[in-house]
Write a structure and sequence with these properties.
Largest sheet: 6 strands, antiparallel
Oligomer: single chain
Organism: Metabacillus sediminis
Keywords: Hydrolase
CATH topology of one domain: Glucose Permease (Domain IIA)
CATH class of one domain: Mainly Beta
Protein name: M23 family metallopeptidase
Distance between the termini: 13 Å
Pfam families: Peptidase_M23
EC number: 3.4.-.-
Order of helices and strands: EEEEEEEE
Shape: globular
Structural class: mainly beta
């Protein structure tokens, strides 16, 4: 966000959103167990409820938790299923795919690789910060 806004210019163009196309990093080392890529980015304000996660990556961590990162830009995911990733490794680019109204990344830690059935686990960053639903965060 800049000056309380998530975009500058035409709100109907993804390119107007500050987050669109920005790199998305792995939150913690682990193994990529699922990726979906190739779904088109929405026109801002429109949704794709048939594919709620849009383009996404699921990472399994050593502690039995799963990171789920959703709404990547079409054809931007750079990792493959089975690949081991390091903390901070670039996974792809922020997009507006799936059940998303504007460019952003949905980040969830779960007890299961399935975003719909897993139990959400509270996120805690290295600096001790614990974000809550809907909060904007940055590195």
């Amino acid at each position: 966000m800049k000056k309380g806004q998530t975009y500058k210019g035409n709100p109907l163009k993804n390119e107007s959103y500050y987050a669109f196309g920005q790199p998305v990093a792995a939150p913690l080392e682990g193994t990529v167990i699922k990726t979906v890529d190739g779904l088109k980015d929405n026109v801002p304000g429109e949704l794709n409820p048939d594919h709620p996660e849009g383009n996404y990556v699921v990472i399994k961590h050593k502690n039995g938790e799963y990171s789920i990162l959703a709404h990547f830009m079409k054809n931007s995911i750079k990792v493959r299923e089975g690949e081991k990733v390091k903390t901070g490794q670039i996974l792809g680019k922020c997009g507006n795919s799936g059940n998303s109204t504007e460019a952003h990344i949905h980040f969830q830690v779960s007890s299961s690789p399935d975003i719909m059935t897993g139990k959400s686990i509270r996120i805690q960053f290295e600096n001790g910060k614990e974000p809550v639903r809907g909060e904007y965060t940055r590195k």
